[in-house]
Amino acid sequence: MDVMILLNVLLILLVIIGIGVFIWSARTFGLSPRVDPLADHPETYDPLRIGVGDIVTYAGVDHVVGGTITFDQEDFRWHEHLLDGSTGRRRLTVEYDEGELEMTLWTPREGTGLEPGGDVILDDRVYRCVRSGSARFTAEGATGTASSGSMDYADYATDDQTGLLAFERCAKTASWTVSTVRAVTRVDLTVVHSGPAV
Hints:
mainly beta
């Protein structure tokens, strides 16, 4: 009887030692559960790496980047990403202006009949042109444009700068597209890159 008790005690000790060794080896050799190092920092992504196939979440809505247009105006470059989501298509522009990251989200306004030239009125607000010009572009993915060409643009703003309006056309014979524009920051967006890190 004493032998049976001794064997049971030894068996329990072996089980306890085995569990301890397993926990120690799991921690020592990296077998512990994986932890996302960016979980507490969802704004940590590379805005310049956004491209076709990425997932961009804004205001709780996921969008897929269906196409990307890269513009070049006298060596100043910026990117425009076409986002497809359940609320429709939007555009996200990403640029560095004098070393500062600037991102804007565009929402198309259909059927306004507006064209650039002088002041324009939309939703009872007056917009004035703040800059205009043309830029060369290259496109990838589903953009609805040629793979390369020239784009005309005109950016408008209200006097208090709270309202922003953008006009674009990718051919001289094309109609102007009109979009309302709002500035966004990195923390406003969550981005999941589809490709490998570079």
